Amino acid sequence: MTDGTDGTKRADIQIGLSVSIVLKQDQRSGKLTEGVVRDILTKSPTHPHGIKVRLENGLVGRVKSIHKAT
Fold this sequence. Notes:
This protein is mostly beta strands.
């Protein structure tokens, strides 16, 4: 399902990509939420815990995996 990209590099993430993120309240459990990237919120080129994004549904979290385009 994923292409092996873990979401820690900003260059790998583009608006419109389908991704799995972990929400702030789900960080302890590791529960993933799927959605489509609307905004990229992290300004630095990399982040060890994943690039922070806002999904089209308004949820904000850090990217854990990027899904291949179908």
